[in-house]
Amino acid sequence: MERCSQGHMQAKKRYLILLSAGACLVLLFYLGGVQLPAASRSRHDRSRNGHRPEQPWPHFSDPLHLFLPWDQTDTEDYNLHISPRQKRDINTSVYKGKRCRMDSCFDFSLCRKNGFKVYVYPQQKGEKISESYQNILSTIEGSRFYTSDPGQACLFVLSLDTLDRDQLSPQYVHNLKTKVQNLPLWNDGRNHLIFNLYSGTWPDYTEDLGFDIGQAMLAKASISTENFRPNFDVSIPLFSKEHPRTGGERGYLKYNSIPPFRKYMLVFKGKRYLTGIGSDTRNALYHVHNAEDVVLLTTCKHGKDWQKHKDARCDKDNAEYDKYDYKEMLHNSTFCLVPRGRRLGSFRFLEALQAACVPVMLSNGWELPFSEIIDWNTAAVIGDERLLLQIPTTVRSIHQDKILSLRQQTQFLWEAYFSSVEKIVLTTLEIIQDRVLEHASRSSLMWNSHPGGLFALPQYSGYLGDFPFYYDTLGIRPYPKFTAVIHAVSPLVSQSQPILKLLAAVAKSQYCAQIIVLWNCDKPLPAKHRWPATSVPVIVIEGENKVMSSRFLPYEIIVTDAVLSLDEDTVLSTTEVDFAFTVWQSFPERIVGYPARSHFWDSNKERWGYTSKWTNDYSMVLTGAAIYHRYYHFLYTNYLPTSLKSMVDQLANCEDILMNFLVSAVTKLPPIKVTQKKQYKETMMGQSSRASRWADPDHFAQRQTCMNKFASWFGAMPLVHSQMRLDPVLFKDQVSILRKKYRDIERL
After folding, report:
1. Which of 387, 505, 640, 706 is positioned for an S-S bond with 654, CB 3.0–4.6 A?
2. Mean predicted lDDT score pLDDT of the chain
3. In angstroms, rounded to a whole number, what is the distance separating the alpha carbons of residues 722 and 724?
4. Alpha carbons 483 and 584: distance in angstroms, whole number
5. Do residues 341 and 194 share a domain?
6. pLDDT tens column, 515-551
7. Can you give the residue ranges of the Glycosyl transferase domain (predicted)?
């Protein structure tokens, strides 16, 4: 009986202890004192909601913060007092929409009616906008995605400058919270995209933007994997205000050196932070620096009061820092260290990419730019801040073949996605469009191989073999026939007209599948019996609105990969057609043909010039007698802006120049001229219905104007000079004519 009562008493005590502990836990939860269970639940939810699996590193209860200086100003001497309410607001604004995904926070119905269209809010009077944000808005407004009608929009972009949300920055826009909430189309941020380069401020450098983003997507620099919402947000690179809006410089790799080693193995030159967030990694770099092939330089000399905080190493570091030229190091190093700063991102990242210096990332927790589409393992070395001392050994162990591959990929990625604000913005929009139009999205190969996702439009085809860029990768060849498209602008009045002779010659080619006559003449279509009988189908179609650009429309009746584009007055023999097509089969991504032209820089007039002089140098092959892939019809129609195509149509001129600009912009290569045919110019001038146009000085002046207008839109001159001409084997050789396959070319 006594044993029973004792057991009853002990049970009662245990019950009271458990009850007290439970009450304490409830109280702690209520006061916000216990966060760990919520964090673990969040991690569980992340894996369930499609996030990438956790890295195999231990999870620390104190997560990595997000940092790097709001740039040229040092802000360590400011100490903002943040009240508990402000802290609560910060946490709310950063984490409120953390579970947002496309299926839960994006209205796809807005995109079904008009496709992927982007609306930019009109700029409000008195609102200051930084140059960088203006470049972003101008890019969107000049793109094929833009609409001025919010009723047609699928995506909305604010005109309020959200790039710099550091409260200590002069670019900081005040009262943004109220301004955003008052926007009539805001709708809690649904279908909105917010661009941001800098967030948070000293001392914490959190990812707070200072206003509630609601259900909006973020295109953000220095974003952490902890706060990044996969397939919803877009991680963008940190870029400076000097970053060009369009065009941009090409990568610095001019040729491949074998072996690919440079003067230095690993370099870095930048600020060192003596205290606070982001200081640990840069403060430890001196342990690895050897002043020979590993040169890692830091300076304490930044900010107004740096001397107050200087440590014992500062003077020595500063002296060493001043000995080296940063650009010389950048261009002469195999690897470039990219450590985190106050925030996770760094300008060093883009600088290294452009210089073909393989980036070595030391920024734990940074979601790398465009990580959704780019395989960074092919262009960078992903290091760990905790293993800094192992970095030199790691990079030394990388085989030279791998180094060469990494270096080449840095150049491709730089030129495809990062060399201008325009490319960064368009890549962001294309990523979102791929999510919206999931059935027509790009594969990883399209994003990570030449020419890149901006020029490989998935709306054209879901099969890589339909594009001119992937034949080697797939181990296939283009279809061994071509479709001839003859552009007719003159009425058919005589059976001896050049167009009929051309049609007969082309039809005899063993590679010709069909001939399309594009009737852009004001006169009615000729009767069928007026066209000569041929062994291949001849299809006559009327040009859309009778404009020049109609010759490059993606007609469904073109079923072959190759298009032989011809003017009505072109004079070509069957042998020449056969030879040109044979050459094109080896270069399916380029324009291959006969009439060549060139461009030059006129230093007196400070503009681009156009020349038709017969020289050994050319940069264009005119589409009056050229073969190219039919994909370029689709790209011409869907990629180029209406303004350029309208200019071509109004002038009835320059469509051939614009096509050359486009193809060279895509390939970064010149066209290919085949065996020179001097008769082309002479014959055309003698009997062509367009002879007067070619002799007209206004026509030539228009082409000069076109060159500069096109170069302005592309942001740079994409045309590439070449001195290569491909001739048949034994061409002009002193051997029997019977030994030559294309013997007729020599008899012309």
Report:
1. 706
2. 84
3. 6
4. 13
5. no
6. 999 999 988 888 888 888 999 999 999 988 889 999 9
7. 482-731
- Specify which residues 515 forms β-bridges with: 484, 538
Kindly state whether residue 270 falls inside one of the protein's structural domains: yes
Q: How many residues does the structure list for the chain? A: 748
- Whether 488 and 613 share a structural domain: yes
* Calpha distance 168→742 (Å, rounded): 73
Look up the domain containing 642 and give its range. Answer: 482-726
Q: Tokens in use for 387?
A: 């293993």
In this structure, how many other beta carbons lie within 10 angstroms of the beta carbon of residue 3? 7
Is the domain of 231 the same as that of 268?
no
Decide: 415 and 251 in contact? Cβ < 8 Å.
yes
Domain count, the chain: 3
Say yes or no: 281 and 221 in one domain. Answer: no
- Residue 398 forms part of a structural domain: yes
- If you compute the radius of gyration of the chain from its CA atoms, what whole number of angstroms results? 32
Catalytic residue among 164, 384, 656, 698: 656
Distance separating alpha carbons of residues 606 and 712, to the nearest angstrom: 13
Confidence of residue 490 (pLDDT cuts 50, 70, 90): very high
DSSP class per residue in 656-674: HHHHHHHHHHHHSS--EEE
pLDDT digit string, tens, across residues 18-44: 667 666 665 555 554 444 433 333 333
Q: Phi, psi (5° rounding) for residue 718?
A: -80, -20
List the structure tokens of 207. 């990812």
CA atoms within 13 A of residue 365's CA, in its CB half-sphere: 20
CA 744 to chain centroid, in Å, comes to: 46
Nearest to 484 by CA among 587, 403, 423, 565: 565
Assess if residue 147 is contained within a domain: yes
Q: Name the residue among 100, 83, 309 with its Cα closest to residue 217.
A: 100
Residue the block writes with tokens 């010659």? 505
Annotated catalytic residue 656: yes
**The pairing of beta strand 592-593 with beta strand 333-339:** unpaired
Strand partners, 119: 156
User: Alpha helix (H) ranges present in 458-497?
Assistant: 471-474
Sign of the CA dihedral running 112, 115, 118, 122: negative
Bridge partners of residue 726, in order along the sequence: 674
The count of other CB atoms within 10 Å of the CB of residue 85 is 8
* Gap between the Cα atoms of 584 and 561, Å rounded: 11
CA angle 464, 470, 473 (to 5 degrees): 110
Quick one: tokens of 710? 């096109």
Nearest Cα residue to 651 out of 692, 612, 698: 698
Distance CA 685, CA 719 (A): 26
Are 548 and 666 in a shared domain?
yes
Based on the fold, state whether residues 403 and 491 are members of the same structural domain: no
The answer on 511 and 362 residing in a single domain is no
Name residue, tokens 């045919």: 677
Of the three residues 415, 436, 467, the one that is the final residue of a domain is 415
Could you give the C-alpha distances from 287 to 136, 297, 299, in angstroms and in order?
Answer: 41, 11, 15
